[in-house]
From TrEMBL:
The DHHC domain is required for palmitoyltransferase activity. GO terms for cellular component: membrane. This is Palmitoyltransferase. Pfam families: DHHC. The lineage of its organism: Eukaryota, Fungi, Dikarya, Basidiomycota, Agaricomycotina. Its EC number is 2.3.1.225. InterPro entries: Palmitoyltrfase_DHHC, PFA4/ZDH16/20/ERF2-like. Keywords: Acyltransferase, Lipoprotein, Membrane, Palmitate, Transferase, Transmembrane, Transmembrane helix. It is a multi-pass membrane protein. It catalyses: L-cysteinyl-[protein] + hexadecanoyl-CoA = S-hexadecanoyl-L-cysteinyl-[protein] + CoA. It comes from Obba rivulosa. GO terms for molecular function: protein-cysteine S-palmitoyltransferase activity. It is found in: Membrane. It comes from the Eukaryota.
Amino acid sequence: MSCARFVFRCFRSLERLGDRLTGAAGPVFVTLGIILLSTGAICFFEVIQPSMPLRWLLAPICILIVLNLSAHYFYVCTISPGFVDEPPRMPGKGLLWAKKRQTARNRALAGVRWSEDVQLTRASVSQCRRCALMRPERSHHCRICNRCVLKYDHHCPVRINQCVGLYNERHFVLFLVYLSIATLCYAISGWPRAMDALGWNDEPWTYYSPPVAFLLVYILSVVLSLAVTIMVTWHIWGIASGETSVESQDHEHYRKVAKDRGETFINSFDLGKRKNLELFFNIGTDGYPLYTLLLPLKIEPYTDGRHWARRAGFERHPGVREGEELTDDDE
Ligand SMILES: [Zn+2]
Ligand SMILES: [Zn+2]
């Protein structure tokens, strides 16, 4: 496990370095992302898809993957992460919004949406040293946005040019999941056509898509399928552990401090792998149906960012004492 952690850490550091180096070029990268996604989709449906086995059976699945990939990329770029100085958002209406399970209980709930077998506690507040706002637990100040973000995960200038937080984290993770699936499919099923494009098969190139564009997307897919799969596994592992990216580092520190004192640090947001995933994707009896993971729909998070689900009987994390919590300045 420690080896896997080391590999994940290395990728994380590389990602951070990339984010820093390319901070100013955010909009350029988003435009590049859109161009590459469109080129990839065109090349796939013109060159690869027609020669796939069971093509008519697979076509709807391929279309669904491309729709999910594009929609979640659009959502993660356009839905703001949620800032501390904004009022809680209400769920939107319209075609793009998933329909929630209608139970008597969730009709009566406003702001905070879960109740069944989950203990929701009001988050403790602390003052931000940078913008002086009173902010709930799990918020952090983003130096690039210069605002306090609810359930701050990280600022991502390369892919989405904004912060990942409470309202767009689900789209961020689903975007990575679909990107990993799409690039894996492209890398595996595009291999014979990549040989054609290189002229190694003596097959004439009879497609409208230029072979250079096809090869460029193919090479990118091979690299991304590896990198994104590792990254998304790391993210999902964090979600299943009830931690954001920032918290996974903080908790490591708390664990060490507690151990030195002969105590044990417990993450009180960790309700067990399954429940943590259900809460993150807001799936379950009080949330949305499971199929919302397969459709390019918007859903609201389980909380307003001012209340958190905690292990029964816990008000805070045992093992870390008052005043010992890391602030944004320590990171
Ligand atoms: Zn702040
Ligand atoms: Zn930010």
